[in-house]
Amino acid sequence: MFEIGIWELVLIMVIALIVIGPERLPGMARNIGRWVGKARGMVRSVKAEIDRELAAEELQRVLSKQAASVDPFEMIEKAATPASAPTPTDAPAPEQSPSAPAASATHDRQP
After folding, report:
1. What is the pLDDT of residues 42-59, one digit of tens each?
2. Residue 18 and residue 45: Cα distance in Å, rounded?
């Protein structure tokens, strides 16, 4: 952000030493350090809040897309109907003559 080199910092420190004086310079440097730390903390918290809001908005958008594209009744029908079972329109009607006995009934019984 600020492109300050080492020589610029040395010049600022020399001017501060002349203006403020050697007695008050360490205390002033501590106060400036605290302010800079607080400012960085505030910027960090604002950035984190913006990131959380963007993530929440993205999640809400994804969930609304999913809710619009998926019908819950259709999902229940798919889950309840096995894929291998024929539907009533696909299954042929069994044709048995009333006079002929069922062959499977006689073969299943063993003495």
Report:
1. 999 999 999 999 999 999
2. 37
The backbone region for 109, taken as left when phi is positive above 0, alpha when psi lies in -120 to 50, beta otherwise, is beta
Calpha distance 99→23 (Å, rounded): 121
**What pLDDT is recorded for position 96?**
59
Total-model pTM? 0.47
Compute the distance between CA of residue 94 and CA of residue 104 in angstroms, rounded to an integer: 14
Give the residue carrying structure tokens 């800079």.
36
Cβ atoms 28, 17 nearer than 8 A:
no
Q: At what angle are helices 25-69 and 6-20 packed, to 10 degrees? A: 130
Single out the residue of 34, 36, 14, 40 nearest to residue 25, CA to CA.
14
CA angle 75, 59, 49 (to 5 degrees): 160
| Contact predicate 51/42, CB 8 Å | no
